Amino acid sequence: MKSCEELVAHESEYFIYYPSKTAQKMFLYPLYAGYFIYKSGYSLRRNSYDSFLIMYIQKGKLTLEYEGRTQDVTAGNFVFIDCYKPHAYYSDTGWESLWCHFDGVTARAHYESIVSRLGNSFFMPDPYPVLSKLSAIYNTFYSGDVIKEPLMSKYLNDILTAFHLYTPNSVLPRDYINVVEETISYINKNFARNINVEHLAERTGFSPYHFIRIFKKETGLTPYEYIVNVRINTAKYLLRNSRLSVKDICYSTGFSSESVFCSAFKRRLGVTPTEYRTMKGN
C-alpha cells in the first residue's frame, strides 16, 4: 500500500497484517511492515501503539524521544522500542528506513532482555543478519506471497536472536564472551567430574574473582550455580528415565555424597529425589 501520511514520500510502501488466533497463541508475528522515505519536518507522537517496533535507519537522521530520553539516531543504527509506551520521533532533515511493528507471546521478554543490554538505539558492525530477515518479511508482503505464519515467526526470532548474540565492547568484550562459552561447553562435558571454580578459572587464565564476575555478567549465574543446575537437571532426567538408584545417580552426576545430592535437590525442587521419581506430570 502506498503511504498517504503527510511528509512521507508517495513511493513509500507499507503493509498491514492481522495474525490468526493460532499465531497469537504460539508465535511472534508482524503487524505492519514498510519501507518509508520520511521528508524534512516529519514528526510523529503517540501515547501508545500496541506493538514493538524495529527500525533500521538507511539514510538521514531522526530524533527519538522515549522514556524521558532524547537521542539522535543516524544512518546505520537500529531503533527498538516498546510502542505500548509513549514515544516520538521526528527529523529536520528526513530519513529512510526499513521497519516492522510486531508482537507475540515472547515479544516482551525478548525486548526487555535486549534493550537492557543494547538500549533503544544501537549500531551493529554487521547488520546483514537482521536486515536480511527484515527484508524477507517486507518482500513477502510486497510480492503478495502466501503468508506462512511459522516462517514469519522464524524471521522475527532470527532478528531477535541476532540482537541477543550481539555484544558491543562497552557491555562485555568478545574475548570474555568466548571464555564464558568455552567454559559452559567444558562444564557440560565434565560436570560429573570433581570440577570447581578454581579449576575453571585456572583454565581461563583469570583470577577466580574476575572469572566469577564475567561469568555471572554473561549468564546471570555464578559458575558454581551453573554446575549445580546442570547436575540437578541431569539427575531429574535419570530419575524419570532410568532404573539407576538414587545413590548411583548422585555419583554419576558429580555430587560428593548422597546427602549433599538430596539436600541440593530438595532446595531447588522442594522434594527429595525419591519423591520426584514417583511424581507425575513433571
Write the layout of secondary structure elements.
Blueprint: E1 13-16, H1 21-26, E2 28-38, E3 43-46, E4 52-66, E5 69-74, E6 77-82, E7 87-90, E8 95-104, H2 107-118, E9 121-123, H3 128-143, H4 149-165, H5 174-190, H6 197-204, H7 208-219, H8 223-241, H9 246-252, H10 258-269, H11 273-278
Antiparallel strand pairs: 1-2, 2-8, 3-7, 4-5, 4-6, 4-7, 4-8, 6-9
Helix pairs in contact: 3-4, 5-7, 6-7
Q: In DSSP terms, counting alpha (H) and pi (I) runs of 4 or more, how many helices?
A: 11
Percent strand equals 15-25%
What is the CATH topology of the largest domain?
Jelly Rolls
The CATH superfamily of the largest domain bears the name: Regulatory protein AraC
Mean pLDDT: 92
CATH class of the largest domain, please? Mainly Beta
N- to C-terminal separation? Answer: 49 Å
Q: What shape does the CA trace take?
A: elongated
Estimate the helix proportion, in percent.
40-55%
Defining traits:
47% helix, 9-stranded antiparallel β-sheet, alpha+beta, 11 helices, 282 residues, Arc Repressor Mutant, subunit A
Overview of this structure, please?
The protein has 282 residues and is of the alpha+beta class. It has 2 domains: 13-165, Regulatory protein AraC (Jelly Rolls), CATH 2.60.120.280; 174-278, Homeodomain-like (Arc Repressor Mutant, subunit A, Orthogonal Bundle). The chain contains 11 helices and 9 strands. It has helices at 21-26, 107-118, 128-143, 149-165, 174-190, 197-204, 208-219, 223-241, 246-252, 258-269, 273-278, and strands spanning 13-16, 28-38, 43-46, 52-66, 69-74, 77-82, 87-90, 95-104, 121-123. Strands 1, 2, 3, 4, 5, 6, 7, 8 and 9 form a 9-stranded antiparallel beta sheet that branches. Helix 6 crosses helix 7. The longest helix is centred in the last third of the chain and has 19 residues, at 223-241. It is elongated and about 70 Å long. The mean pLDDT is 92. It holds the Pfam family AraC_binding. It comes from Thermoclostridium stercorarium (strain ATCC 35414 / DSM 8532 / NCIMB 11754) (Clostridium stercorarium).
